[in-house]
Amino acid sequence: MRLARLTTLITSAIVLIFLTYTYTNLFTRIPIPFHRSKTTDKMGGGPVQGFRSAAYFVNWAIYGRKHRPQDLPVENLTHILYAFANVRSDSGEVHLTDGWADTDIHWEGDSWNDVGTNLYGCMKQLNLLKRRNRNLKVLLVVGGWTYSSNFKAPASTPQGRDTFARSCVDLIKNLGFDGIDIDWEYPQTAEEASDFVALLQTIRSAMDQYASTLPEWYHFELSVACPAGAQNYQKLNLPAMDALVDFWNLMAYDYAGSWDSIAGHQANLQPCQKNPKSTPFSTAAALAHYTSHGVPPDKLVLGMPLYGRAFENTDGPGTPYSGVGEGTWESGVFDYKVLPMPGAQEYHDEETGASYSYDAGQRKMVTYDTVHMARRKAEYIKGWGLGGAMWWESSADKPGHESLIGNVVHTFGGPNGLLRRDNCLTYPETKYDNLRNGFAG
Length: 441
Known about the structure:
By secondary structure, the chain is of the alpha/beta class. 29% of the residues lie in helices and 20% in strands.
């Protein structure tokens, strides 16, 4: 009896230790490490804990979408990724794409009679948000799908890379950015992948050189928007890139869309074993590849969509469709804030880690994240020990208790669960008087 009891106690202790250090994934039941994100603070402050919460803000949102920087839920964000800057393919110069939106438009409180050269537009408002929220960093996004063809030529030469990096620094010091996010979609050859590494190295060196000229050193952050499709991530030199970037924004969406012949999930966590045609890609496969090739989980930020992709004349996931119909701003794409559509019912595939709505009368499916799925993904992030969450793009979220951003951050533990690191407020070389003076007066 005593031996049996002792054996039982020892077994129970082993199980308790195992459960303490592992967390069972909600979807696969596979034990995976459970830990909070721990990132080395390159400012010299030692290890810090918490999750990144990053949202892409697009400069065209101020027009039809009527979405301004002032509308951002900054209490729930650590990073705003300001999109997009373009690059000149012949020289490598990085430049803004909409001067009116970026630096010129005047909003309430802006005067047309200010003396000197002053910054307005989205960048003034973002800098004001930074001053009120010291944990908020603003990174300039260079590239994106539309402009990515312009990377190849300048990235291939030392002169092009140098011009690229120097112009990035010029934009940082003039407009008040805290770093750069590179969105090259996508390097397609080993040579281009090597050029990408060289480009990141040149940017990193240029930002560090600029930081050394400031009254107090500041670590300007460098991130990349990275693919979740094997045909693209397998071509990247992940270990070499990881040595240069602060974090990776994994674009874990657009797994299915109008380019396919089958209706599918666009942001599923796992492949669907029962209905494999519904999940041509999966987040789990992407994470497995990145982490097995030297990328620490806590540097991977899981991207999530604030929109849905539609399929018409379909019987649901994994079945043929015909047409995608209209959308909020483009065909077949709906802002999350208008979903579900009237008459549609929401469904959750817990095993696959996906959600969607379906209108049986219209035979219309829309694949998107619901509040329930956003919370599940937040738990998934915690279970994997990932670095946080990212969203494309901020204008499409709902307010209040249905906000996907808000629900994910709440699952992280609220704003206190976010990574804490001060932004930069000192830009002594800027050409804008009000930014240099801290918007005093």
